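Checklist before submission:
- one chain only
- standard amino acids only
- sequence pasted in full

Submission:
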Amino acid sequence: MKVSIVGTGYVGLVTGVCLAELGHDVVCVDVARDRVEKINQGIPPIYEERLEEMLREGLRLRRLKATTDLGEAVRGTELSLICVGTPSGLLDYIDLKYVEEVSKEIGTVLKGKDAYHVVVVKSTVVPGTTEHVVMPLLERHSGKKAGKDFGVCMNPEFLREGRAIDDYMHPDRIVVGGIDGRSTEKLLELYKGFDCPVLRTNPKTAEMVKYATNSFLVTKISFINEIGNICKSLGIDVYEVAKGVGMDSRISPHFLNAGIGFGGSCFPKDVKALVGKAKEVYYRPILLNAALEVNEAQPLRLVELLEHRAGPLEGVDVVVLGLAFKPGTDDMREAPAIKIVHSLLKRGAKVHVTDPKALGEARKIFGDHEGLEYCATPQEAVARGRYVLIVTEWPEFRIKDLYRGKVVLDGRRVEEARAAEEYIGICW
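Returned file contents:
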């Protein structure tokens, strides 16, 4: 099939290279000319495992290209996938400005296109957005009728950063919320050959499936962290508890790894957006608010443990291993490391940070603070101080010798760190 993808962030670019790998002809669209040029040169603007090699292969086979010309892309394709960002707006409500802009532009292009075209929303949007925001804008700017002249679907993504390629190529389910059967069947042509369950539903339900999924996972993470905090005070290993709990087939062991909490571009933003949507219908989501509250405080427990062990941190050299919110990515959006580093600097500590992929992102966030040093390797960082905080569980940090003679405060259960002179887990 011929597919245009609007937006080249994690979702858009991963979707594009994967569809090209599967034999489809893909045009990626972005307003940032430098980003488009990099993609056409085979240089992905983000880090994701296997992304660069698959991008280069798609370009080599001429199955993929990038452009700033949305009109050309839509006119030459059968499907347009909207993959633009939906950042948090005022009071954490979702900001739909990019989705709205793209919907207007696609509608304008469809005005002069005779062939049937399906517009697919893959951006994470609150329930009702596809039907009450996207579709009316498409109709208004095209002068055409949805369901008659063009199709509309909502198709949420379930990609994990660091594993996004595998998640796309081997999904555990596909959810298609179409406004009618024709729209749904056209989109499902894109997924021929995928061996997984398919849920055909309406757009509003498809949108809610995405939010409900992330909200459940967030709640599960905050739940085990809260249990871990209690276990810490009682002298119980929360990982042994989680092992026993996870053996229950109704619960499963997934997302029961206690630590410093979740971050990233999806979990915090999506749950806050759902809380905001609930407020619109006069409902107060007690459980979701509690999950967010636990996560807000969790990273700073590592700093509190450090203060309890080392005393006042003024002038103390502290090493922070890991800045990205999880291994396998350079993404620092809502990363626990941000709170931890800011808290250490506020207390007057001399902070030495390292990360295999996220140092560039860290410089954008922290700048050239006089109390902060960026180190190229974990060995270089660890040599700078006696106290070591493990914030991201990169494989590069799983080296026993790295921790010899150090006091380690571990937020991610890195077993090799137990070789330290003194080892302290955040909630175990």
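Reviewer check: The two ends are 51 Å apart (CA to CA).
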